[in-house]
Amino acid sequence: MTSLYFDISQEQWPIVYDDKYNVSVFGLEKFHVFDAKKWRNIVQYLRNAQLITDERLVKPKEAQKSDLLVVHTKRYLKSLNWSARVAIIAEVPLVSLLPNFLVQYAYLKPMRLQTGGSVLCGKLALERGWAINVGGGFHHCSAQKGEGFCPYADITLLIRFLMMNNLIETAMIVDLDAHQGNGYEKDFLGVPEVYIMDMYNRNIFPKDKEAKKAIRRKVELGNLVEDMEYMLKLRLNLKAAFNEFKPDIVVYNAGTDILDTDPLGHMSISECGIIKRDEYVFEMCKGLRVPIVMLTSGGYLRRTARIIAESIINLHGKGLIYGSCKDSKW
After folding, report:
1. Is 179 a catalytic residue?
2. What is the pLDDT of residues 237-279, one digit of tens each?
3. What are the residue boundaries of the Histone deacetylase domain, all occurrences included (predicted)?
4. Is the pLDDT of residue 34 over 90?
5. List 72, 139, 140, 179, catalytic entry
6. For position 25, what pLDDT does the model report?
7. Structure confidence by residue, pLDDT tens digits, 155-181
8. Residue 217: beta bridge partners?
9. 103 with 83: CB under 8 angstroms?
10. By CB neighbour count within 10 A (0-12 exposed, 13-18 middle, 19+ buried), where does 144 fall?
11. What is this structure's pTM?
């Protein structure tokens, strides 16, 4: 049993977060399109809404080398000791000029902590019916390669740890980030126990044809897709996915880069559309009594933190996520 798994109190909610999730590389993060303080802002909105307190949050443990080696090759992990390699993954060229020990501390350590949070969420979801990692969702990273801001394969690790510990036999990944989740797709290519539904903009990164072979339900969208078309395709395909496959857990990659005006997603989903999207996925899982892990993944506008928080508040208001363990019907 990994040290990343531990028990939480009845009063705690399976919402996983540590303030160390947030990235600060001597101000260089300002040169990146991603809001490196997104995760802190989500939690602050939840605090302001009085949905959570610090006592209710769960702090994860950082994924160690032994944990990462469950999926990653030694060669890949060794490559992260070169700042130039990390700069390519993070897409911040100036990072290549920094000593690697600073890159490890300021960028990779927060990412390892978020990865530990994703792994922990797998266990917590089985116990409570749901879990949310305020970070994670590094869906472009595979066992042998990181890219697209994703240095660790947290989705693959989440599922592999559950299977290794005989906690599940099957899993479904529902990826609704604007980008194709090519990382875990490479890892689960030819693995029938893992069903992948990926709904993404076909015109943007990564356009990974080889990884697409792993997708069991592929929903390719065009630029500027709006709420009505999006929700119709989501409802049709998610129902069909559950008719085709009975998972022990759903890993929901809930990227908000589908939002209108997002600089990388190139789609036109409204704030309300994102909230309704999340509500529908949780509603389906609750109705079928399938545990769900939500990862926040991509989203490149400052306002996405507020939208994610409002979505979580909505899930609670609709009774789709519960407070303490004694409130759960799971």
Report:
1. no
2. 999 999 999 999 999 999 999 999 999 999 999 999 999 999 9
3. 32-311
4. no
5. 140
6. 66
7. 999 999 999 999 999 999 999 999 999
8. 197
9. yes
10. middle
11. 0.96
Dihedral sign for Cα atoms in the order 186, 190, 193, 197: positive
SS3 state of residue 98: coil
Query: To 5 degrees, how large is the angle CA 31–CA 33–CA 37?
Result: 85
Predicted local distance difference test score (pLDDT) of residue 322:
83
Average pLDDT over residues 107-129: 98
Q: How far apart are CA 177 and CA 320, in angstroms?
A: 21
282 in Cβ contact with 321 (< 8 Å): yes
CA–CA separation, 253 and 284 (whole Å):
15
Contact 192, 172 (CB under 8 A): no
CA distances from 65 to 2, 68, 109, 139, 152 (A): 12, 5, 11, 19, 11
How far is the first Cα of the chain from the last one, in angstroms, to the nearest whole number?
Answer: 23
- Assess contact for 21 and 113: CB atoms under 8 A: yes
